[in-house]
């Protein structure tokens, strides 16, 4: 008996267990696609990732916790994260978008890094855990304070979009501090030092709000920028991680507020989730397959669905399906979901005539 194949088969069965439920109708554009509900009852879920062993890991942000999904059931892994409301209406005092841990990435089979994003700007850090517990058990990086002379710049905050370098030495982070100085940051895993890596503003890029990062090769990463809410100004930038300089950038026509992306399993492009963000409601979001054209400033965008509910993050699982964290019917309620879509890795866009 091949023990590795048996273990892999059992793992895929465990992840797919929730898929025994009825398929979801997300208006997917193709018969090859199927969507299923993996997990619900979450509040503002902000991140999906997988451990080296293939365990689905979820940041249940507004509930201040990180969950592991095993045998189709969610288990609390790290709890007790500080949370805050991202927006407070100055006139009515209404609080909106409660946030806690916004992203996580496994460094190895025992170590999980989590963005401790419920603190104030200039106080947030990345916490490292080697087992279950509470946020207080994490080993913390430093925080990053103001990087400009702007009095509105309190330092980096709403840290999100964590990804791990190919050699496992560096964690890349999307920073959401002051818009006057927009940063992609990096954590040295060995020293736990967090520092700025690349500034869009210093590179003459006006689009801000970096939301996610992906290692692209040994010398570069991709960073996804959502831009201003409700505007078609999303951007993908390829950064040289050694120099902090721009290698290439692409606009994303047809996507309003892209917030998460993932590299296709075959390495032939990306998928992007578009939140289509609004301050007062969850709007219909999109899923697209994206090809980065070498000699063009505009990426090729092929819409797969326009029927998601506030998608914010995505990752391919060991079963080849795409797992998506979405806000659900309402934000700040326990209506958030993790869904999975199959068939994407087999999709081939039509060639232009």
Strand content: over 45%
List how many beta strands DSSP finds: 27
What is the H-and-E element order?
HEEEEEEEEEEEEEEEEEEEEEEEEEEE
Shape: globular
CATH architecture descriptor text: 6 Propeller
Task: Give the biggest beta sheet.
Answer: 5 strands, mixed
Helical coverage, percent range: under 10%
Oligomer: single chain
Feature tags:
353 residues, mainly beta, Neuraminidase, five-stranded mixed β-sheet, four-stranded antiparallel β-sheet, 1 helix, 4% helix, disordered C terminus
Describe what you observe in this structure.
This protein is mostly beta strands and 353 residues long. It has a single domain, classed as TolB, C-terminal domain (Neuraminidase, 6 Propeller), CATH 2.120.10. It is 4% helix and 45% strand. The protein has one helix and 27 strands. The strands form seven sheets. Strands 2-3-4-5-11 form a five-stranded mixed sheet, with no helix packed on it. It has a four-stranded antiparallel sheet with strand order 1-27-26-25, with no helix packed on it. It has a four-stranded antiparallel sheet with strand order 8-9-10-12, with no helix packed on it. Strand 6 (84-88) and strand 7 form a beta hairpin. The radius of gyration is 19 Å and the shape is globular.
């Amino acid at each position: 008996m091949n023990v590795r194949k048996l273990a892999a088969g059992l793992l895929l069965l465990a992840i797919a267990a929730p898929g025994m439920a009825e398929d979801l109708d997300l208006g997917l554009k193709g018969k090859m696609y199927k969507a299923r509900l993996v997990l619900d009852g979450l509040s503002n879920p902000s991140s999906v990732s997988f451990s080296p062993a293939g365990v689905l890991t979820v940041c249940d942000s507004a509930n201040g916790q990180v969950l592991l999904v095993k045998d189709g059931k969610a288990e609390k892994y790290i709890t007790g994260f500080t949370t805050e409301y991202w927006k407070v209406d100055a006139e009515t005092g209404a609080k909106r978008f409660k946030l806690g841990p916004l992203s996580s990435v496994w460094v190895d089979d025992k170590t999980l890094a989590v963005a401790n994003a419920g603190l104030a700007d200039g106080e947030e850090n990345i916490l490292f855990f080697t087992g279950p517990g509470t946020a207080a058990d994490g080993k913390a990086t430093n925080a990053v304070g103001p990087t400009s002379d702007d009095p509105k710049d309190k330092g980096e905050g709403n840290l999100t979009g964590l990804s791990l370098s190919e050699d496992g030495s560096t964690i890349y982070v999307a920073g959401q501090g002051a818009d006057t100085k927009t940063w992609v940051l990096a954590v040295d895993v060995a020293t736990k030092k967090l520092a700025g890596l690349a500034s869009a503003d210093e590179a003459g890029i006006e689009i801000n709000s970096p939301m996610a990062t992906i290692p692209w090769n040994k010398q570069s990463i991709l960073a996804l920028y959502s831009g201003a809410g409700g505007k078609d100004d999303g951007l993908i930038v390829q950064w040289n991680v050694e120099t902090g300089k721009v290698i290439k950038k692409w606009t994303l026509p047809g996507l309003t507020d892209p917030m998460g992306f993932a590299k296709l399993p075959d390495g032939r492009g990306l998928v992007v989730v578009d939140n289509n963000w609004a301050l007062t409601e969850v709007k219909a979001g999109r899923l697209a397959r994206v090809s980065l054209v070498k000699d063009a400033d505009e990426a090729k965008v092929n819409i797969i669905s326009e029927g998601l509910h506030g998608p914010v993050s995505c990752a391919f699982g060991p079963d080849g399906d795409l797992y998506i964290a979405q806000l659900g019917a309402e934000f700040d309620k326990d209506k958030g979901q993790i869904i999975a879509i199959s068939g994407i890795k087999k999709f081939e866009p039509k060639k232009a005539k």
